[in-house]
Structure formats: C-alpha cells, structure tokens
Amino acid sequence: MNAQQPLRSARRGHLRVVTATTAIIAISTLTLAGCAGQGSGSADDTTTDGKIVLSFWNGFTGPDGPALQQVVDDFNDSQDEIEVKTNIMPWDTLYQKVLTSVAGNNGPDIIAMSASRIPQFADEGMFMPVDDYYDDEANDAAALTPAAVEASMFDGANYGVPVNYATMMMYYNKDLFTAAGLDPEAPPTTWDEFAAMVPQLSTDDNGDGKPDVYAIALADHETVPIFPSLLWGTGGGIVSEDGTTSMLGDPASIEALEFWVDLVTEQKAAPVGLSGADADKLFQTEKAAIEIVGPWMTTGFDEADINYGLAKPFGGPVDDAVLADVVSMGIPSNASDEVKEAAYKFFAYWNSPDGQITWANGSGFPPTRADVSDQITESPYPAIFGAPDVADSARVLMPGVAAGGPILETVFTPALQRALNGEGTVEEIFTQASEEAQAELDK
Prior knowledge:
- The chain is an alpha/beta fold.
- The protein has helices at 65-78, 91-104, 118-123, 131-135, 146-150, 174-179, 191-201, 226-229, 251-265, 276-284, 298-303, 337-350, 353-363, 381-385, 388-391, 404-420, 426-442; strands at 52-58, 82-88, 110-114, 153-154, 157-158, 161-167, 169-173, 290-293, 308-311, 322-330, 394-395.
- Strands 1, 2, 3, 6, 10 and 11 form a six-stranded mixed sheet that branches. A three-stranded antiparallel sheet has the order 8-7-9. The chain has a two-stranded antiparallel ribbon with strand order 4-5.
- Helix 1 (65-78) runs antiparallel to helix 13 (353-363) and helix 16 runs antiparallel to helix 17.
- The chain starts with 51 loop residues before the first strand and ends with a helix.
C-alpha cells in the first residue's frame, strides 16, 4: 500500500477540530445526571487492595481499540494507586447501558464521546468543567494541540480532555482507478474532477441499472458527518459561525446539497442508505473506489490487502475545508473529588509523551501533542493524517453549539434521507429543515 500525501495548498490558517465518531449522534438522549457509579465516592471506589477503580466507557470497538487498551494497561502498570477498567462496546450499546445505569447509580466514572456533543450535556449540567486540569502545570497540558483542547469548550469553560484528534482523508483504491482507465496516482482534487470520474468509476457490468462498483462510499446516517461537511465546499453550512442561525436553507447550502444528491441519485456515484459501517465494508470489499474517513480504518484496509492511496479530500468550488474529529474524555458532574483527582492522573498519562507515542504507533492517529511526532516510527499514518497542509484546512462542525447533536440527528439526517429517496426537491426539503433547525437553536 502506498500512501500519497496531497500536494494542494491549504487556505485556512489554523486547525479547528471537529466531531467525531459515527454513532455518537445517538447519544443525544443520554442522561448522565445520576451516573455517579464509582464516581459517587462509595465503597465501590476501591478494590480489596486499596486501589481507586475508574470505569472508563467508550466505543473504540474498531482496529484502534487494542491501542487504547495498551495505553490503559501501561497506565495501570505505571503506578499502584489507580486502576482504569475499560468497558469497550458498540456505541449504541453504550448509550443503552448508560441510560439504564442512571437508575442503578452504577454508570461510568469517565466517558469518551465526540467533543462536538459535549456542549449539549454541559448545557444541561451533566458534565463537570475541567479547567483546573488545564491550569495545573503538572499535567503538561500546554503541550497539547490547541485545536484538540478547544474542541470541548462550551460557554467559556472546558468540559473535556482529548483522547484523539484527526482529519478525515480520502482513501482511494488504486486498482479500481486503473481498471477504470484513470491514473492511480492522480485522485480527484476538486468536486468537478470527481464528478467527471463518476461515469468511469461507477460501473454496471450486469446492465441491471445498479452499479457493481461505486465511485464513492458516502454514508448518510450513523457515521462521521462527511455529508454535512460537504456544505462547506460552496460556502454553506448547517449553522452560522456564532451558532445562532440555521444555514440549511441558504442558497450556498442548497447548491451543495443539490450537487451531491444528484451525484448519488442520478449519477449513481454511491448507494442510497449507507451507514458508516456499510460504507467501510463497501470500500473494504472493493465495491467502492473512494471513501472519506479517519485513520481508524487504516488497519482494517491494510489487513484486507487493499491497494489504496491517501489524499486530501477533494475541495469544493469555494472552500477546501476538511472535516476533522475529536473524541474527548469527560467526567459526570456528580463524581467525587477522589475520583476526579484519579481521573486527572489518567488524563495526564494518556496525553503524556509515552501515552501518545504508544497510541499513535498503534492506532494511526496523529498524537495529541506535536513534540513527539518524530518518535512515531511504527506507523506512517500519523504523519499523513496530521500533515500541515491537511491540518491547516481542517474545520470544526458546529463548535460549541449545544443544539448541534439534535440538529444532526433529528433534522439534517432525516432531511437528507428524504432528499436521497426522492420525497421532494432538495430546496423544499431543506427549506423546511432549516426552520426546524432554527427552532432547535432558539430553544
């Protein structure tokens, strides 16, 4: 597998990191009030040998899960006062377990979630601020990438500590490009270049009107929000920069949506109705020539022996902004002081040089701190996903917007699916969706 770093210059001055993992959207119903569990300061906080036990719930079930577990194991071995126990499960299972744990008071002490979701819960008083973690010089927080830290800010306070951050990159199958008569070393750099390639990449050998191979695996639900980020390409978006006004009905947003809905429905660039997992499988089984996704898929695609390249995603006519992803660790607001202090020690280890070298080498994610980049020698991917020209174009999706999660889940995604299924024109559907989004913002 040969990884190709994109050559196009960036137009944005700094990284403003984004939302993150696929099924986090479903967490909008999560209620952490009462999820004290071992954070309540009860006798359950310690094991028989006197250690404070922290329950760490997360959804890292993919190829990056072993790397996360290794850092946790290393932390546990590094001292004899605290033991972190991971509870790694599919995101949808995690949400249900957290919901049912509320009544039983046996929820997590630490929970990982998309940083873009944190404002929703911080606004409802479900997470405690962690500004004092950043204020303590002993935690070496000044070494962290500012974008990864700022991603969990809400209303002037910080409610999370980064687990990871990464830009989304374009994976492209070189063999499928070659089979289509395209240069395997020249992936599309603009929307128009991609659109011109669609007739060659979406092939229908059976003549049944349904492609056997698609140009792109583009999910419309239960996924990292790639589709919403495409609105930036024309200068559109979901909400305004100050988070107060819906942009879904703006001409620029409608222009982007019409372009991509037409590519999918009329040009057969991608199947309709893909989840994030479906999109990954489509690319992994060589039924799609392109997928835009994060570094967590490098291991799976390598194990599938896909001959792929990596490049910066194609840019729109106005903007080449790149979607990025941050997962942060938060603490329920009713955790005890003892558990909070123990959690802070784990956070500091996770983001220490040793923790980040292990994490980056094992997961393919860029480290959360730049001062160890030259020590990431076991994987080529952190340097690719963290390349300056890619990072400089990266952008947050609805940063600090408490209603961001509900808008994605209950407004944008259903509207997109209606448009893809031909239940009205894009303009009609998203003009109505914009009104619904504004109502969420105004609550």
